Amino acid sequence: MTRQSPRAAKPRGRRPGGDGQTVFQGLGVAPGIAIGPAHVHGVELPAFAECAIAPDQTEAERGRFRAAVEASKKQLSKLKQKTAGLPAAAAEELGYLLDAHVQMLSQSRLVRGVEKRIVENLTTAETAVRAEAEAIAEAFEAMDDSYLAQRVQDVREVGARLVRNLTQTPWGAFKNLPEGAIVVAEEITPADTAVMDPAIVGGFATVIGGAEGHTAIMARALGLPAVLGVADLVGAVRPGDTVIVDGNEGKVIARPTAATLERYEKRRLEYAKEERQLARLSKLPSVSKDGIEFALGANLELPREVEQALAAGAASIGLLRSEFLFMNRSDVPDEEEQYQQLAEIVKGMAGRVVTVRTLDVGGEKLASALGDLSPGPNPALGLRAIRLSLARPELLDAQLAAILRAGAHGPLRILVPMVATVDEMKQVREAVGKAARRLVRKGIPIADPLPPLGAMIEIPAAALAADALARVCDFLALGTNDLTMYALAIDRGDEQVAHLYNPLHPAVLRLIQFTAEAALRNRIPVSICGEIAGDPRYTALLAGLGIRELSMSPIKIPRVKSRVRNLDVQSAAARARVVMEQWDTKAIAGLVDEFNEGLVRAKE
Ligand code: PEP
Ligand code: MG
Questions:
Q1: Class for domain 14-42+175-255, per CATH?
Q2: pLDDT in tens, 400-457
Q3: Which of 481, 501, 531, 551 to mutate to test the pocket of ligand 1 (most atoms within 8 A of CB)?
Q4: Considering only CA atoms, which residue is closest to atom 8 of ligand 1?
Q5: What would you report as the CA-atom Rg of the chain, rounded to the nearest whole angstrom?
Q6: Binding site membership of 360 for ligand 1 (Cβ less than 6 Å)
Q7: Where in the chain is the domain with CATH 3.20.20.60?
Q8: How far is the CA of 86 from the centre of ligand 2 (A)?
Q9: Which residue has its alpha carbon closest to ligand 1 atom 4?
Q10: pLDDT of 203 higher than 90
Q11: How many Cβ atoms sit within 10 Å of the Cβ of residue 504?
């Protein structure tokens, strides 16, 4: 009797719905509808140069191959750790898959075959991997065995991972894709999205990821429809399959029938028409019906969004996430490089204020440039954001100097992420002064007067100490994404608890209200730059709580502006008072939605 591995004994059902139409439900994190051919991330081989090697190079080449095998195993084990956050069935499914990939890298036919080809054919490791993986895949395809047929994609994925590591191709290099391709993957990191070109990529869908994580934010920034947290996606979509990503409803449809395709084509056109109509609002003022002016700013993840921000009529940049400067690279950008990039953005905004946030890495946001950064036992509570910058003064000094120099080209503000104490703000102010004096001594032009310095209020302790922070800050910016996460102890990037993530929890609302009032008492501006700022569902409530500045992904500005223009702030404040007396989140949601429905009806 032959022994079957537990994996072989369990039919994995990788292709729910067989070859026909399959509908998956996930979290719609970026609006819009995209239809296109699937690019199954991880299967395609990156490009590499073909060349022969000399017999005395075979040992070195085998060494490169073995290093790539080790790197691949490490990546797979990291990915497996992440599956712990998935629903049990999906974690099991993905776990089997990743284990199988590790097996293929351990004394397997693939590993032996590659080493043999390097020695016998005198080829590079890349060429040998491609040839061996293809030979195995073809042999599996030729056998009339459904289990082996399902392994074909696995072999190709492992081969692609090896070549990617050999060529050191960044994981998310989405090059040479057909136009409108839908990227389907186990996981896409924020850094992956940073290299996606919206002129080529149509949208994406992944197994791992929550609605408020940075991958979701990047998708919205790029205007790419995206659905994350799709538990059954793995292996159910093949390269080239037609896929619909419905970011509005959180649906992914693989191999749609002609009728489905027609229905979604129609919806796509309707959505595009609605967007065009909303775009007309860009030139109109953001003033409520009772004459209260709102400042609607843009959150920027990437410099290329300046154009979008201007087109959407953004009054300012309320949050420039400077992490883009540190993504997809293995070295830290120097002061000059940071200055050049920031100056471009300041000039591009033509006199509108640009709020530059200092580096906010750590936690879920790891920058490859800081390769030696350890996530620590609890990354969300570890050495991140301003804590990291203060621990690495050379990082902070270069960044502050670059910001001050960019400030010579137009108005800007400096925003400090994850502030918990007054002392942190004092240290940053000192560092700003020191950097300014150094630049002045060298005769380098900088912002004059020095830019306003503000704190992100995104740790509950900071919100509760907003009075004290307001005394050492020139402005405050509420980061409600993290504020909600830390107040409720719900990981914003974890799809498993996404249903519990709720900014309408009375605790979160009280933290927002307390901060808004502290800013008012201390006569300094306060804004919200978390995702709720861009969701019209919250506009009336936030206005009612005294917020007048909202900063959001540029694509969100028109819908929020439409809501502002339809609003009577007096009655929003009255409704907010009723809301703040409630303790039940559902009752609060009911009151908010009822008020909003009244606004929509009044508009019609
Ligand atoms: C926030 O936490 O609300 C915020 C705006 O910052 P980020 O999303 O970049 O953490
Ligand atoms: Mg934050």
A1: alpha beta
A2: 999 999 999 999 999 999 999 999 999 999 999 999 999 999 999 999 999 999 999 9
A3: 481
A4: 481
A5: 26
A6: yes
A7: 291-555
A8: 23
A9: 479
A10: yes
A11: 21
